[in-house]
Amino acid sequence: MRSSILLLSSALALALLSGAWPQGITPPGQEKKLLAQGFLSAVDDPSGETEYAITDPKGHKSHSLGKGIARKPKRDKDGNALEVGDYISAYCTPDANTGQCSSLTESDFILINRPAPPTATGVVQRVLVLLGNNPNCNVPLRNETSLEYLRVRYFGADNSGTDPGCIARQIEECSYGNLRINNATTDFFMVTPECWATDVCAGYYDIDARMRAAALAIGVDPSAYERVHHVVNAPNCGWSGAAQTPGTIVWLRGWAMDGLTPLHEMTHHYYRWHGWAATATSAGVSVEYKDGSSYMGNGYVCPSAPQLANMQWASPAVGGGAVTSAVLPPGPATSAPFMLPATYMTGAGAYVRVLPDWVPGYYLEDGVTVSNTSARNLYLEVRRSMGADWRMAGQAWDGSVIIHDVRADYDLFPNVANFSRDHRSNFTGFVPPNSRRVMPEQKLVIYVGTFQGDKASVLPVYLCRYAGSDAECPTLSDVLGLPKPSASPSPSPFPSPSPSPSPSPSPSPSPSPSPSASPSASPSASPCTNPKACKVKPKRSLRSLLGRRTGPEA
């Protein structure tokens, strides 16, 4: 004890002489002050330089922590890991001379709680749209569009929000009414902000602060709105748009007010990640932003099944929420058909989620923990170029079952993946009607029948798993009850039932997460031991095919 007192006294004496205080010791009269309290939010930049901030719950104040992963606090003073979406506080010891905080360390942060991601259902937004215009800066920050154009893009020519292609109608249809913009309370103003950096890309929160100040200068209070969209000129910036996750602020370029960027950024308030896919020049390697089947990639269409599921905009088909070995017996049996409606039509019963735990290596040696390196779950959905997906016309997968794979260990609890763990939703491929596709990595065969229903927008989908070869599973003709081919060759309207090419390799895994519990299987329809008995009769109404459900399952 005596030696400890002597050491502390020596440290204090040294601090008095040098003016430098040891870490963890606050000088007399310089108590820590609360710097910020709120959500740890992220603004992901295409350059990879994410900007982190602490944002108050209503989004009225944001304290930027800076750009780059080094700026993200990793732990708090008690050693708790900190993740995007956490509710935290930051304290600092101000400089004795300036009264300002020069830097923050882990000892300055406190984890208050870890709330669930903000709900993306039943949301009606009141938005303030600010158009920046300052031609008097060194590099003029002239507006890149007009207020009238913005009004039309958001709500259509008649301001009703019902015009096909306007932002309000698109986001409402893609979310099945869960996310709407209030046309009566959303306002548009042009403001003249103080000049921001033009020789380099200005920080997001530097732009935000100047735009808010400019709004206040003309009598507009941004804090009276639930969301703020800044439409700005940002020289030397590589982005067309950006958004807080979680948060309330969107940044947009005036030339990027098309049908993709605003929807993409608005959705980032609830879901952080992008769609991946291999390209013609990527040698089979998946690339971020390249999924053309979702506006969270580079498509002009609604989100894909993994994204719809994460935001709870869609529910699985009956028995299709967790297809595991306990649900799907090995071939030659197949599942009973999952009747999947095209997602333009409804989110209820709109996808099948396959957890291929029969594949060696899906679990670690303990037989419980899902592998964090190779295990990939599958999501199956039907897409047609109708409704909000009308711009899918001409794509190879239009009118097919689309397959996405996701990182399985992050797919156990979808909400966890919303902000902190990228489950890497990857476009794997597609299966046209009346065809069969083999998924070698999942040891799975997917069979797709003919469009059904009065809108010809429902496809029957069957599954079969195998141990060694897809020959263990039945042929397409056996499953769909198609006529047997004649001995003499003749043209056939159906694709060959031979296996399709292997899907694109999965993207490189992220760092290992904490071990997770084994997924639980959801109830399933009985398997078909006689595949022909599963044949679905055509000419059935949409209601009879889908049942009387009008909303997603709980």
Automatic annotation (TrEMBL):
Task: State if Signal is listed as a keyword.
Answer: yes
Lineage start:
Eukaryota, Viridiplantae, Chlorophyta, core chlorophytes, Chlorophyceae
Q: Where is this region: Disordered?
A: 55-77, 482-554
Q: Where is the signal peptide?
A: 1-22
Basic residues composition-biased segments: 60-74
Q: Where is the composition biased (Pro residues)?
A: 486-516
- Residue ranges annotated as compositionally biased, kind Low complexity, are 517-527, 543-554
Q: What is this protein called?
A: Peptidase M11 gametolysin domain-containing protein
List the keywords (alphabetical): Signal
**Domain of life of the source:** Eukaryota
InterPro entries, from UniProt? Peptidase_M11
Boundaries of each Peptidase M11 gametolysin domain copy? Answer: 126-438
